[in-house]
Amino acid sequence: MANSDNKRRKFMATTLQSVGLTALGGLLWSGYSDEVKASPLVLRPPGALPEEDFLKACIKCGLCAEACENRDSNINKDGTKRAGTLKMAKGGDHKMIGTPFFIPTEIPCYMCDDIPCVPVCPSGALDMPSLLNKKEELDINKARMGLAVVHKESCIAFWGIQCDACYRACPIQGEAITIEHQKNERTGKHAFLLPIVHSDVCTGCGLCEKACVTEKPAIFVLPIEHSTGRAGDHYVKGWDEKDQQRVKDAKEIHTKDERSEKEATDYLNMGVEY
Ligand code: SF4
Ligand code: SF4
Ligand code: SF4
Fold it and tell me: Mean pLDDT over residues 181-189, rounded?
């Protein structure tokens, strides 16, 4: 009898172990496949390092998301809280699990003046110095969470319909987005009032995307790497003194390098007779 009990216990233990291992394997696999499928189009909190460095630095503690949820403006009069902007990625989000991100169409970043999500970051994944202005104060206008881009074909302002929802929602109105007047050649009477985003000012907060009236937002925020091009160093703006200086400096460095290489070879060959 004792022998059969022992056998039953052993059988149960082995079964549970294999179920546990299968479940663990499943979890690990879903975590792994989620990382593999992780979308590069992820928007990170203000001050986040470039994506690759961010992923290395972030220890997935969630303090930024907690601070975002607990920010003063997020607490109702009765003490209850609304959901914060920042979410921590979980399985199925197609983001690196445990890392903070936000989706503007759900909850954009409200560009808090005191940026509470950043100073709490213990790892430097959210880089406070990058958000300091000349007075050494935290300045949310220096954040570059992404860049808003306008899809002209679906933006109804480009159809001639009057709409400035994105312009009105922008916290840096008149600088990050301006409205450009353009003559409507088709009617000859009306003007297009076109939203234009300025990449040197836009923080990527996503308030414009959230406010857009079209079925799928015609203005949307993408990570900077995915919303900008690069002309390459060999193109020079002839009208821009800074750009000309950049090319001059690059040439000087190049010549200096060549010279030092030559000097090094001369030194090595000193006293060598052929
Ligand atoms: S700055 Fe944006 S992400 Fe940070 S706490 Fe405020 S709303 Fe949240
Ligand atoms: S506080 Fe910093 S380290 Fe912690 S989850 Fe947020 S970004 Fe990552
Ligand atoms: S993302 Fe939109 S609302 Fe935010 S700063 Fe840029 S243009 Fe303005």
Answer: 82
